[in-house]
Amino acid sequence: MISIAEIAHTVKGVVEGDPDLIVKGICDLKDSRADHISYIVSGPNEKYFYDTKAVAFLVNNDFSIDRQDKTLIRVLNPTLSFIDVIHMFYPKKKMCEEIHSTSVISDDVQIGEQVEIEPHVVIKKGAKIGGSVHIGANTYIGSNTQIGDGTVIYSNVSIYHDIKIGKNCIIDAGTSIGADGFGLVTDHEIHHKIPHIGSVRIEDNVWIGSNCCIDRGTFNDTIIEKGSKLDNLIQIAHNVKIGKNCRLSGQTAIAGSTILEDNVTLAGQVGIIDHVTIGRDSIVASKTAVYESLKPGSFVSGIPARPHKNRLRQEVIINQLPEILIRLRKLEKEFFTI
């Protein structure tokens, strides 16, 4: 249990109400609980304020509803500050410096301080593991691969040889990093596999979800720059470059040598062909197929990808087609009976 005064101090907020109020935990705005704290921002969710059981809220400076008997903490960004509140009630698990006896680690592997390695991990020769790294059970790390400080790797992850992963990354269970890309040469109807001698470079603060596949480059590296976040079940092909602070939702697939510039957002089930560039700050809606490069700041949807506003206008016209057809047949009938 934590007082409102303690929470306000942590989030650097201003209290309106009872600073000595004790809250037992956090809760959702709709699925609320008594004696708990939640957050709300000005807008559509304001209608739930009076029905919620929560006794305290993080709110923004524009929040103007009568608080009645509820206690408020005003902050610049309630959603962002609520992350700090979550950590207050659910602090991160402390790293225990332990290497399980069933792990198989080559003698020349460099391991930093406060590293936790769970059962049946395999780490091959020449690998470098930074400090405060967690490696989950049954994970494989290939030779000469580097893992930066503070990175968390969950169970059943396969990281091939010569891969570079930065600091404070998260790699969720089942992901594969560094397998050969789908590079083929076809001669007389026989497909010959191209050896891939490039690598994968993942920069700091990247999050890779579960069961993603990130292929190594053919000659150069596949690159994911710092701050980018990947959802589950994503395919990143050879030589793809993903810029800084990009967001990729689940079941997205990006073909080889495509470039995503900074701050690109891809919604779920997006497909992008090879050798195109998606300009910075672009948004690609769900289930979109991108067949050509996009200018910076684009917002596209559909198959093939087109500007979203144009797509909406087309949908309006398509929905009117049955009525237009009826009118056309009526006009034809009138014309030919004259």
Which key terms come to mind for this protein?
338 residues, alpha/beta, Udp-n-acetylmuramoylalanyl-d-glutamate--2,6- Diaminopimelate Ligase, Chain: A, domain 1, UDP N-Acetylglucosamine Acyltransferase, domain 1, 12-stranded mixed sheet, 10-stranded parallel sheet
Rg to the nearest angstrom? 26 Å
Query: Fraction of residues in helices?
Result: 10-25%
CATH superfamily of the largest domain: Hexapeptide repeat proteins
Q: Roughly what is the average pLDDT, rounded to an integer? A: 95
Quote the CATH topology of the largest domain: UDP N-Acetylglucosamine Acyltransferase, domain 1
Number of strands: 40
Q: Which strand order spans the largest sheet, edge to edge or round the barrel?
A: 8-11-14-17-20-25-28-31-34-37-39-40
Structure commentary:
- With about 350 residues, the chain is an alpha/beta fold.
- It contains three helices and 40 strands.
- It has a twelve-stranded mixed β-sheet.
Task: Provide the fold topology.
Elements: E1 2-3, H1 4-11, E2 14-16, E3 22-23, E4 25-26, E5 36-39, E6 56-59, E7 71-74, H2 78-89, E8 98-99, E9 104-105, E10 110-111, E11 116-117, E12 122-123, E13 128-129, E14 134-135, E15 140-141, E16 146-147, E17 152-153, E18 158-159, E19 164-165, E20 170-171, E21 176-179, E22 184-187, E23 190-193, E24 200-202, E25 207-208, E26 213-215, E27 222-224, E28 229-230, E29 235-236, E30 241-242, E31 247-248, E32 253-254, E33 259-260, E34 265-266, E35 271-272, E36 277-278, E37 283-284, E38 289-290, E39 299-301, E40 306-307, H3 308-336
Parallel strand pairs: 4-5, 5-6, 6-7, 8-11, 9-12, 10-13, 11-14, 12-15, 13-16, 14-17, 15-18, 16-19, 17-20, 18-21, 19-24, 20-25, 21-26, 24-27, 25-28, 26-29, 27-30, 28-31, 29-32, 30-33, 31-34, 32-35, 33-36, 34-37, 35-38, 37-39
Antiparallel strand pairs: 1-3, 2-7, 22-23, 39-40
